[in-house]
Amino acid sequence: TFASSNSPIFSDFRNSIKEKRGNKCEICNIKGVVLHGHHLTYERLMNELETDIQIVCLRCHEEIHGRKFKPSRSETSKKKK
Fold this sequence. Notes:
By secondary structure, the protein is α+β, with helices and mostly antiparallel strands. 35% of the residues lie in helices and 12% in strands. The radius of gyration is 14 Å and the shape is globular.
């Protein structure tokens, strides 16, 4: 079992899923950004299966949870160039 979603064991688990799934957001397919492991279910929390986790970028993760995405300064400046 995982001590927490921030534990080294869960981090390794999440990273292995990211690699298997192409290191991209499974919703918008963006690459080269920080990716999150979104829980599709909490039924097996701390003992997740790979199918319990969806790999998503911050923008998609915020939208899943109904929060408005606020781009960072670095993202804003990239768009202006």
